[in-house]
Amino acid sequence: MTQQNPKDWKTYDQFAYGIDTNRLPLTQALDGSSHTIHFDDGRTLSLAFSGQSVEWSDGGQSGKDTVEVVTVAPDTYFIEIAYAGKPLEAETVIINTATRRALSILSIVRPKEETVGEPQVGQIFRPGVLAGGVASGFVPAESRDLIGLRAHFTYSPNHVYEHTYLSSQRYAWQCLVGVQRGHGDVDLATTYKFAEGQYVFTFREFKIPVASTFFYNFDDLRSTGKFLGINGQGAIQNSNAGAFIRKASATFYLPGQDPV
């Protein structure tokens, strides 16, 4: 039996409108540069930046597509690539040009019939390093650091959400201000620590086909991210987002009673 969403549940495009108001601006810092990333699973991705375009090669494939770059921390860039030839996919690549560390998050809209009982939009995570030098510093890896944190995210005057990080696999959200006010849910989540005070937080929703990738900089209390999913008209939509972060509280667990 198909599970029905609650009454007045909003579609992706209804809640996403304006959610990029507090996003950090785009940068041209990588314009004219080229970078090759060797990922731990053997994949190699080469990127050459020119304005709002990037020429890429990935194994036997290559192309030129639209790119957006945001500086999210010193020497650290949030790179969003929308592949015109692969409309069901969008890739976020985080790189630090000083430490040469990298992390790719590939979001994929999958056929609904293949994802019964799980979110329709899946994600693949690939840590890696930039070629041409010796990598240093923290190695990006899955993290439990956010468990127990409750924080508020202000994306715009009309978009305020509360996040509670429940475990290494799930988080809870509720809308405090906006068209989703009063709505909330518990969804699948994955967190990677990228560097000290820097995390890549992702989640995949059950009730609507959408997944998100965010970079948290807790030194600046800023969040930069995107959503990929299916909007109310059935079209694929890749939307920017960004917020100011306010830490609200934290829960501390007794030994042996901490979440998974």
From TrEMBL:
<dbReference type="Pfam" id="PF17409">
    <property type="entry name" value="MoaF_C"/>
</dbReference>
<protein>
    <submittedName>
        <fullName>Molybdenum cofactor biosynthesis protein F</fullName>
    </submittedName>
</protein>
<dbReference type="InterPro" id="IPR035348">
    <property type="entry name" value="MoaF_C"/>
</dbReference>
<feature type="domain" description="MoaF C-terminal">
    <location>
        <begin position="141"/>
        <end position="249"/>
    </location>
</feature>
<dbReference type="Pfam" id="PF10703">
    <property type="entry name" value="MoaF"/>
</dbReference>
<dbReference type="InterPro" id="IPR024724">
    <property type="entry name" value="MoaF_N"/>
</dbReference>
<feature type="domain" description="Molybdenum cofactor biosynthesis protein F N-terminal">
    <location>
        <begin position="8"/>
        <end position="107"/>
    </location>
</feature>
